[in-house]
Fold each of these.
Amino acid sequence: MKGRAQIRWLEDGRRLHLHDGPIDLIVEAFGSTDEINAAYRAAAERFVHVLDELCGELTFLRQATQANGPPPSGVIARRMTAAVAPYCQHTFITPMAAVAGAVAEEILDAMTAAARLSRAYVNDGGDIALHLASGEQFVVGMVERPDRPSLFGTATLDSAQPVRGIATSGWRGRSFSLGIADAVTVLADRAAVADAAATVIANAVDLPEHSNVTRVPANTLAPDSDLGDRLVTQGVGELSPAEIDNALDAGVLVAHGLLAGGLIRSAALHLRGNTRIVNSQSSFIAFPESRSLAHA
Amino acid sequence: MPEDDAIRCDACPVLCYIKPGRTGACDRYANDNGQLVRIDPHVVLDRAVSRGDSVVPFLDRDREWDGSIVTGPENFVTAIGAGTTYPDYKPAPFIISSTVQGVDMVTVVTEGIFSYCGVKVKIDTDRHLGPETNLVRAQGEPVGHVTTSEYGSQMLSLGGVRHLTGGSRKEGTVTCETLLNLCDRKPVELTIDDGATVIVQAGKVPVVDGVQEERMRVGCGSATIGMFAKQWFGRVDEVVVVDDHITGVLSEHQAGKLLGVRETGIKMKGHRSTPGRYFRVAEPGTAWGGTNIADPLSILQNFNPKFAWPKLRLLMVSTTGEHHAYYELDEALRPVEKELPAVLGESVARIRENCEPALCSVLFMGGAGGSLRAGVTENPVRLTHSVRDALTRVTCGGAPVYVWPGGGITFMVDITRMPEHAFGYVPTPALVAPIEFTLKVKDYAALGGYMDHVRSLDSIMDGKGRRRLSANANNPWPLAPGKSPRPDPGSDPRSDQ
């Protein structure tokens, strides 16, 4: 199915756009021209097989992960399963919660194995895998409402820090969410790990049974959703400041647990213009508190 | 197998079952009433891949990347997404220099939070939307009011600081959302107290109480008689212009009298206002001339035999030219429908041609206050003076603005001339709008500008996270020299080319 995937330059002539079915990647590598070209070729050669590999065991990947269950065969599928495994005894989760991050990691690995790069990133719809050679850094912009993209802040990541994965989840995003967070952005050591954690934290930012939250069984929207008939958020009406606090508190509690367990390095939770940051004390990674603007 | 009307997409091996009105996992293929269709790509988080950016084939022989960075010959950086630094009074986020015909120009780019802002909405309709000053509501909350009727249109004033921050929290939130959606060119339903429910969308046809407007009529029936009497004289004996408001009759109308049109013995139903002008010939509706008339003869009584004559030629036409019929009287003075003579067909076509499509237009209006101006210069009032003195050009997302005379920098901009998704909001609630000030470097230095913070255009263009758009060809190029930075007071901002 190599003819199906689209691999193109973006207009700037520097970034590569890889597209196949639901997978949409923006890739950029930094280094010498030869190394960059080698990395892009490696990315393209790996990419054309990714969707077929995943679809070969899609039924398994859409089922709830079992502790000590049988592993899938594909390398990306295994990465997905490993990323969600820490949660599967506490909550319903399928490997699909980490698919975007796992694909990003796989393409990045193919690039760094083929070429010596100073920096590189693979952005899979907001779930990002990073490569940083010693002494390098990335400035990452963050968006609160994916349907109205505008940066609310930036985070600087340098090679001395362990963060190599960034992921964002929220009910306004492409995937269904069980919670009401506008966006939860997580920094973690790997993209698949960040992806799973962002999903779990965004699900936890919630006001169960609240009458102003519109929820619909996932399979009434997408009959083959891995979430089955679980209620997914489709609309959030008026919330009082106290309710916003309560919903964020619930998410922050989960985020602290993941931080303590070493699964994530940092998280930023957004709901209705309110932001909570969860950082480890020892970490140099700090999200900005909020975006500031000039009052006219 | 899929239940109900879900269809199976075979565009890729995921093989999604897609429900009607939904997209598959890719957000690219959708079920449109049982048909698999391809839709616009999803706007991903990376703004640079947003709609409209072109892409080129990878490893295409001639286009293989050579390591060079591509920059267009001419770029103007808008303030969209620039952010600002309030309340620190730091310099605006981007102060950019570029050279235009040998003159160094500076563009100060910022995004402002506008608490003092709103939109003026012009709705092309002759329908009564509601009494002047009555409240306009969205989702039940007051968001503005009905202001004056203009020629062929009704005006609404929405937003403003009182609705944004002066009322309840919900009123402010709904007002902000309404303004944002209108500025984002989305349809918004507005209900007027003791009036109509209107769906307004910038650049689109208004829908009043569920009825879509078509065309603005050229004038009322009486006005139409006045405009076209000369073209009809000698070619037809009688013309009735059917209109919901005032139906006109050529032979009785002042314009017909002046031309010497002979009395025809026509007898209208309805209330005669002044000679040749009739109110309420029928009930309002969606047929002839905004009435409920399907057969135009139903508004005529028998011709008076004292004046009428066999073979009398009668044209009946609506104020938009969309309906017309031609009759000649038989020996018993009864109208008999005949084919429209070509020469009258031309006049009907001309009426139609003069009826412009009905549209909603949305102008954003805001005022740039002291702290925003302080991001441009250490001495904010000098920026105001500079704009007044036409040394500084103000643009909004690259689009030309009309700056009101008097104090401050209060401007209006047609939002359809701005790039899409140019506006944002903050929970205050207030709108976030882009604003750019362009002036010569030496003028910028003279008004106390932040010269230390001026960056070259190239340093911006190779930065990350830039969304590059083609300029709107109908807008003046923001950096074009030698043109007035703002139109003369009173002129149409559109004419500032």
Amino acid sequence: MSIFKDRQYVRVNVERESDDSLWMKCKSCGELVFKRRVRENNNICPSCGDYFFLTAAERLASLSDNEAYEDITQRIVSDDPLGFSDRKAYTERLAEARKNTGMEDAILVGRTHIEEHPVIIAVMDFRFVGGSMGSVVGEQICHAIEAAISDQCPFVLIASSGGARLQEGMFSLLQMAKTAAARGKLAEERLPFISVMTYPTSGGVQASIASLGDIIIAEKGAMIGFAGRRVIRDTIAEELPPHFQTDAFALEHGLIDRVVGREGLRDELASLLGFLVIST
Amino acid sequence: MSDERTLDLLESKIEELRQLDSLDGMDLSGEIAKLESKLADLRRELYANLTDWERVRIARNPKRPYSLDYIGAVFSDFYELHGDRMSGDDRALLTGMARLDGRPVMIVAQQKGRSTEENQERFFGMPRPQGYRKAIRAMRLAERFGLPVISLIDTPGAYPGLESEEKNIGGAIAESLSTMARLQVPIISVVIGEGGSGGALAIGVADRLLMLENATYSVITPEGAAAILWKDKERVPDAAAALNLTAPHLLELGLIDRVIDEPLGGAHKDFPSTANALRDELVSQLDELQQLSVEDLVGARYARYRNAGRVRQAPEPGEEPAEDPSESEDE
């Protein structure tokens, strides 16, 4: 079980916990912890310090002044362009994800302030089909970048994604090019883009928009990389070090600027914005 | 493809007969003609009804022409440029200047190997970060001197592994996408064989995207999709069909601009005609692109990618039955 010890995040299926239960069990240390304390503590286990997933809405609130933000997410959904069905129809997967998360796809876009800096933040939510990037996520990221350009303010992306949304085939792959193109416009406007990689930031998201930040921060415990262990095993069967694709690995090899604990992320973003926002 | 092997066998039998025929006075021409017409019928039948998975196998066929074959036949004066100036020279991704119909262009191309030695050198056509960084270098060079970029895509994907991750393969791909999205010269990309996911797209952000008839382009291999989505290796053909990865499908979906016809049986059956068709198409597309101002060119490319994807308006909260998920999607 040693690989689980390296992992800072714990997967919990929040939906399976009935809402009236006051306690939840931390899958990392096994401790029964008071749910409200976990919530108040940024979804960090008060007992062992491991991270539970934050929902996109919780994340946006946790970064915003007074936990208040304007939800500017576009009201769009996937059109299932391939009529895709594997063991389950894609439309069915989407409907389930919607029901479980209350979201229309794997991302929220908020207009908000961090320590009085106006900023547009896009937050991906891993609970929704693994945070995967299909047509909707790509469109919302471009929408967020365009909002930042129109507000002339910085753009922050909080990535949490397994990669491309396979069920949309080539339409998903093209979102990598689409978001990279929009990012180019932001650069031409000389507006800062801070990319925050959380657990996990991989595949087509790591190989496009998430790696194009002016500054790239990893949240403690992030998993960062392009091809996962399974792909590498199946393709070239190579021996991989235990800290492969961890936050420490990414920092050591120069993929990111620094690693920040969840509780310090808001302050970190505030001080970065203080450096990068060109004052008039 | 077992049927393909039958055809190959028949073909070699005909060849044998032909040699016998020329050896001495035996007149086998009647037999030969009969077999040849039989072969042509079988081939037409087989290739008229290709499944998507069979096309994937043609796209991966080691007899298929590779980038260097096209570079030799479609272009002239290829002058290869080596190295990313940082960590090495990736042999799975070639860059260099050449002439297309007399015009200087920059070629960026993935190159597979045929023999074991070649594949050791070329990593089976899977570029590493230094490959994508070399591509970026070549494209910047092209931009500075006004050379159009022609990219030839033929890769199972970017090389996965420890070295690639240490050198930030994801970051290199991202940088290449962003470079191409704003490059100030025309870009034409052609999928000549296998278009494998992000590793293919990394040299495929273009003003025109063309595909050879039997090439494929996909977000994931059918094998990968079968393993992840179906959890069943036997479902590879179903995955291939569901992904819509063939050139005719992608044309129908509006994701590519042109399909270049191949001879029956694939490009390797009549390479000169395939190469000629590709040259003609490249020249005519480049003629169109070179008439645009840089501003219009880059603006049109931006619009092309900005509009990529299919979304629709979300139903109003009341419209969506919340209880039964299986019904909630069909409007």
